[in-house]
Amino acid sequence: MKLTAGKLAGLKKVSNPRGVIAAAAMDQRGSLQKALAKEKGGEVGDAMMEEFKSLVTEVLTPHASAILLDPEWGLPASKRRAKNAGLLLAYEKTGYDKTGPGRLPDLLDNWSVRRLKEAGADCVKILLYYTPLDSKEINDKKHAWVERLGDECRANDIPFFLEFVGYEEGADEKGFDYAKKKPEIVIQSMREFSKERYGVDVLKVEVPVNMKFVEGAKVYAGQKAYSKKEAMDLFRKAASVASKPFIYLSAGVSNAEFTEALELAAEAGVKFNGVLCGRATWKDGIPVYAKQGAEAFRKWLQTEGVKNINNVNERLKAATSWHSIYEVEPALVGA
Question: How far apart are CA 246 and CA 202, in angstroms?
Answer without folding.
Answer: 6
